[in-house]
From TrEMBL:
InterPro entries: 4_helix_cytokine-like_core, PRF/CT. Residues 1-22 form the signal peptide. The keyword Nucleotide-binding does not apply. It is found in: Secreted. GO terms for cellular component: extracellular space. It comes from the Eukaryota. One of its GO terms (molecular function) is cytokine activity. Keywords: Cytokine, Developmental protein, Glycoprotein, Secreted, Signal. Belongs to the IL-6 superfamily. It holds the Pfam family PRF. This is Cardiotrophin-2. GO terms for biological process: cell surface receptor signaling pathway; neuroblast proliferation; positive regulation of neuroblast proliferation.
C-alpha cells in the first residue's frame, strides 16, 4: 500500500512539474495566425503611409517626398544591423516586437487625434489609423499568448506619452505622424521577417 501511494505521489509530482514548465513548443497555430496578421498589416501600412502623405499638403504630398532622417522621440525604429538581428534568440525577438507595438498603440491614437483636429474630413485616413490600432492590439494579444506559452515575461506596461504631446504645433504634428506611419511600416516588415523564422522553427 505504501509503495502504491508513493508511486501515485511521484506521478502527481511529475505532472505538476511538467505543468509548471514553459511549453517548449508554443502554439504553432498562434504563430501562423500572427504571421498572417503581420502580412495583412504589411500591405495596409504601405497604403496608410501613402494616404497619410497625400492628405498633409506640401511638402509631404509633393512627388518624391522623403525625409528618412527625420526622427521623433519615443517612436520605435525598426532599422537594425542584419547580423545582430539574425543572431537574436526567440525571447529577445518577441520582447522587442511586444515593446514596439505597445508603444505604437499609444502613438497611433495620438496621430488619430492629431488628424481628427487637422483634417476632420479625411475619413479614409482616420478609418485606416483606427484599423491599424485595432490590429496592433490584436497583434499584442497574440504576442502575449505566444510569450506566455514560451515562458517569456511580457515587458511591463508603460505609457510613453504625456498630455504635453498634444500641445505641439500643426506642422510638428504632421511631422510626427509621418514618422509614426513610416516607422510603423518598417516595424511590420521586421515582424514579418521575425515570424517567418518562428514559423520555420515551430511549423504547424
Amino acid at each position: 500500500l505504501h509503495s502504491t501511494l508513493a508511486a501515485q505521489n511521484l506521478l502527481v509530482s511529475l505532472v505538476l512539474v511538467q505543468l509548471a514548465r514553459p511549453d517548449p513548443n508554443p502554439s504553432a497555430a498562434t504563430i501562423s495566425q500572427t504571421y498572417n496578421l503581420a502580412r495583412l498589416l504589411q500591405a495596409n501600412t504601405t497604403k496608410l503611409l501613402n494616404t497619410y502623405l497625400s492628405t498633409q499638403g506640401s511638402p509631404f504630398s509633393d512627388p518624391g517626398f522623403s525625409a528618412l532622417g527625420l526622427r521623433w522621440a519615443g517612436v520605435p525604429v525598426a532599422t537594425f544591423p542584419f547580423l545582430a538581428w539574425r543572431s537574436m534568440g526567440d525571447s529577445e525577438r518577441l520582447a522587442r516586437n511586444y515593446g514596439a507595438y505597445a508603444t505604437f498603440d499609444a502613438f497611433l491614437q495620438l496621430v488619430w487625434d492629431d488628424q481628427d483636429e487637422l483634417c476632420p474630413d479625411c475619413s479614409e485616413l482616420l478609418t485606416m489609423l483606427g484599423t491599424a490600432r485595432a490590429r496592433t492590439r490584436g497583434l499584442l494579444a497574440n504576442l502575449t499568448s505566444i510569450m506566455a506559452a514560451m515562458g517569456i515575461p511580457t515587458p511591463p506596461a508603460t505609457d510613453p506619452l504625456t498630455s504635453e504631446a498634444a500641445e505641439v504645433g500643426a506642422f510638428e504634428k504632421k511631422c510626427r505622424g509621418y514618422v509614426v506611419c513610416r516607422e510603423y511600416h518598417g516595424w511590420v516588415d521586421r515582424t514579418v521577417r521575425d515570424f517567418t523564422l518562428l514559423k520555420a522553427k515551430y511549423p504547424a
